[in-house]
UniProtKB/TrEMBL annotation:
Pfam families listed in its UniProt record: YflT
All residue ranges annotated as the General stress protein 17M-like domain in the record: 6-70
Annotated source species: Mesorhizobium ciceri
UniProt xrefs under InterPro entries: GSP17M-like_dom, Low_temp-induced_all0457
Record-given protein name: General stress protein 17M-like domain-containing protein
Region ranges (Disordered): 175-200
């Protein structure tokens, strides 16, 4: 099994990628989506998804059902990232690293969860920063026979070129994801979605 990850500036593109992954046979239990919600674009389920994860049920337990991963989105907060809309195993892992710590989350939880699943740490930092700055992360754990399809779906033209994004961040003085940096405020700085760094 391999972890395949893609970062998207546009939530709709990320949601399309999730649907494509499910259509190619990746179980929704093996897919995760984490999207920045600092501007409250998502007004959906603010139910007990985060609280259930803190109690040990995990976001993964909340998502089930025939509707697929996107039917189980919940709102929570991750330190350094801020409010997110999330579903799936990565969200459960990122918020469950510290027992019962969903309201406060786990410091660096996304980076830790990604690296534990096999994503190189330097890439995990860019992915976490991408979510912090308004992006959406899609991650899938796939069996060997589905790796090529998953890599094609998450490496499509609508996803972020990770090397370019890293260079852009570093050009602005960024050295790595900092869970203590505070929320990224869209009104104060440009969001990545306003950039033109996506692949042609």
């Amino acid at each position: 099994m391999k972890t395949v990850t893609g970062l998207f500036d546009n939530y709709d593109d990320a949601a399309d990628a999730v649907r494509e992954l499910e259509a190619t046979g990746v179980p929704h239990a093996n897919i995760s989506i984490v999207a920045n919600n600092s501007d409250d674009w998502y007004e959906g389920d603010r139910s007990e998804a985060a609280e259930d994860a803190g109690a040990g049920a995990g976001i993964g337990a909340v998502i089930g059902g025939a509707g697929g991963l996107l039917t189980g989105l919940g709102v929570m907060a991750i330190p350094g990232v801020g409010p997110v809309v999330a579903a799936g195993w990565l969200a459960a892992t990122a918020t469950g690293v510290v027992a019962g710590a969903v309201a406060g989350g786990a410091v660096g939880g996304i980076v830790g969860a990604l690296t534990e699943s096999g994503v190189p740490e330097n890439d995990a930092h860019v992915y976490a920063e991408g979510v912090r700055r308004g992006g959406t992360l899609v991650t899938a754990r796939v069996d060997d026979e589905l790796i090529a399809n998953a890599e094609e779906i998450l490496g499509q033209s609508r996803s972020v070129d990770l090397a370019e994004r890293r260079r852009a961040y570093e050009a602005g003085g960024w050295t790595g994801f900092d869970a203590n940096a505070g929320e990224y405020i869209p009104d104060e700085t440009d969001r990545d979605s306003a950039r033109t760094i996506n692949r042609p």
